[in-house]
Design goal:
- The chain has 329 residues and is an alpha+beta fold.
- It has three domains: 88 residues, Jelly Rolls (Sandwich); 93 residues, Winged helix-like DNA-binding domain superfamily/Winged helix DNA-binding domain (Arc Repressor Mutant, subunit A, Orthogonal Bundle), CATH 1.10.10.10; 74 residues, Arc Repressor Mutant, subunit A, CATH 1.10.10.
- It is built from eleven helices and 15 strands.
- The strands form four sheets. It has a four-stranded antiparallel β-sheet with strand order 1-8-3-6. It has a four-stranded antiparallel β-sheet with strand order 2-7-4-5, with no helix packed on it.
- Helix 4 crosses helix 5, helix 4 runs antiparallel to helix 7 and helix 8 runs antiparallel to helix 11.
- The longest helix is centred in the N-terminal third of the chain and has 32 residues.
- It is globular, with a radius of gyration of 25 Å.
Length: 329
């Protein structure tokens, strides 16, 4: 049976990746279709009275590909798929085929549009993905081949690095310099201006640079369906879990058990923000933790803290470089 839902401005109708159980028609108000992007979200469309949303999932039962929230007080007509299926069975087979085909073509078109948007973003980015791996590999190569041991790590000859960047790999030196500044801000190297055009560059851990290149290169060439992508908003949660995981002992399988309920209670004091029990949900889905377990009025998980520690610096580097905007004008 269909029903009316009243939403206040800011209320969520459904979230990205939620299971699809109904489609909706807007009776009054405004609904925004939103997509997560890093720690923020982008508005894909704004819909008004008479518009329908969530209808394509009726045919393939896929999770929501985007979220929907009210941007004004709204009244929504909810049409549950269970009731619609009962009516759909009575359609002529030729009409069913047409409707399914149109739905499939629309979903495929939307996927192609998103792929084109991602390609456009890569083309216009200061640090496209493969440029990141090239520049990191150049630094690692020069540090390994020509670097000298320093009290803080490996001293990289700046002139040789510049020569390899320009002459051997035909990369832009301004991008190399910008990347080094960002890596220094993240604590992976130091860049000291000695004056008269001279720079002292020290890489703290060359192996981390090589490991990053292998990790990100494998990630980029892996089938998209098999990639495990850590979202920027998840980095904060990972740091919090590492903070508490470092205080615990590993079990015989190398896992660390964390009391999420206790963490939620203590996190404001320890971290300055609340790490609530639902913040780990996406990490559970990606295999960084076990499913949540209910034990004596508390929720716990087994966390792969070593794996979190391994990938955390990689994703911090990626997102720091991806945030760099082209100069205007």
């Amino acid at each position: 049976m269909s029903g009316l839902r009243n939403l206040k401005k800011g209320d969520i109708l459904f979230r990205e990746n939620d299971p699809s159980e109904a489609m909706f028609v807007i009776k009054s108000g405004r609904i925004a279709i939103v997509k997560s992007k890093g720690s923020s979200e982008i508005v894909l469309a704004e819909l008004g009275p008479g518009d329908m949303l969530g209808e394509m999932a009726f045919f393939d039962n896929k999770p929501r590909s985007a979220g929907a929230k009210a941007i004004a007080d709204s009244v929504i007509i909810e049409l549950p798929f269970k009731a619609l299926n009962a009516q759909f069975k009575n359609f002529p087979e030729w009409l069913k085929a047409i409707v399914r085909t149109v739905s499939t073509h629309l979903r495929n078109a939307n996927m192609k549009i998103r792929q084109l948007e991602r390609s456009s973003e890569e083309e216009n980015a200061v640090f496209p993905s493969h440029t990141i791996t090239r520049l990191m590999a150049i630094v690692a190569l020069v540090a390994t081949r020509y670097g000298e041991k320093d009290a803080a790590g490996t001293l990289v000859p700046a002139g040789t690095l510049r020569r390899y960047t320009i002459q051997v790999f035909q990369q832009a030196t301004n991008k190399m310099e910008k990347m080094n500044q960002i890596l220094a801000a993240l604590g992976h190297m130091t860049v000291e201006d000695l004056g008269e055009g001279k720079v002292k560059i020290v890489v703290k851990d060359v192996d981390l640079f090589w490991d990053f290149v292998d990790f990100y290169n494998d990630y980029l060439f892996k089938d998209e369906s098999k990639r495990i992508t850590v979202e920027e908003k998840e980095l904060k949660v990972i740091r919090g879990l590492i903070f508490y995981g470092d205080k615990q002992q590993k079990d015989e399988k190398g896992r660390i058990k964390l009391n999420l309920t206790q963490i939620q209670n203590d996190s404001m004091r320890d971290l300055g923000w609340v790490l609530d029990v639902d913040a780990v949900n996406s990490l559970v889905e990606k295999g960084f933790t076990s499913d949540k377990m209910s034990e004596e009025s508390k929720l716990s998980i087994f966390a792969e803290i070593d794996e979190m520690k391994r990938v955390l610096p990689y994703w911090e580097i990626i997102y720091a470089l991806k945030k760099v905007q082209p100069r205007s004008g």
